[in-house]
Every structure is written in structure tokens, then in C-alpha cells.
């Protein structure tokens, strides 16, 4: 299922809400320090807002990320033949040191004395 504008909007709202709850928690801590009160726990509304934004973010990420692949590693490999496993282009090396280890060759006409 492709990511629609709605899913991206929900994801951004979730991140904004989570940022707001973190800012509210920091503001609550500074309020307690100014009034010289002990910190015991966060207010319930900040905790609820953080949890709801977490679930909204999880929903948005699952829809924006795209289709999930199977966990089973052999699921992708079932359709490939044995020859494709040996053909790995990332291991091709065209610029190697072998040309410097070989004996020098002369090209063209050789003159004999």
C-alpha cells in the first residue's frame, strides 16, 4: 500500500505531539525546580499524550515504510537459479595489481642483433 498524504500527515502530527509532550515534561521539571519541589513523577496528561503520540507514530511509520518482506531468508532466494548465486558483480575487479607483477612485454617489431 503506497504512502498517501494522509499517512504522512498523521506521522508528522505524531512527531509534533511527541515533541510537545517532551517540551511539557521539561517545562514541568523547570517549574518544580523554581518552586523547590521534589520530582516524583510526571503529570498524567503528559504521560498519556506521549503514549498516544507513540502509537500514532507507529501507525504512521508502518504505512509510510511500505510493504514488509518475509522474515524467512529463503523466501527471496527460491526464485533464483544456482548460477545467479555465483555471479556477484560487486566482486568484479578490473583494476588490480596483477599487471604490475607480470613480466614486461614488448609490443611491435623486435630487432634482433
UniProtKB/TrEMBL annotation:
Membrane topology: Multi-pass membrane protein
Keywords attached to this entry: Endoplasmic reticulum, Endosome, Golgi apparatus, Magnesium, Membrane, Signal, Transmembrane, Transmembrane helix, Transport
Signal peptide: 1-24
Pfam families with a match to the protein in the record: MMgT
Entry GO terms, CC: early endosome; early endosome membrane; EMC complex; Golgi apparatus; Golgi membrane; plasma membrane
Family of this protein: Belongs to the membrane magnesium transporter (TC 1.A.67) family.
Function field: Part of the endoplasmic reticulum membrane protein complex (EMC) that enables the energy-independent insertion into endoplasmic reticulum membranes of newly synthesized membrane proteins. May be involved in Mg(2+) transport.
Annotated protein name in UniProt: Membrane magnesium transporter
Gene: AUGUSTUS-3.0.2_14495
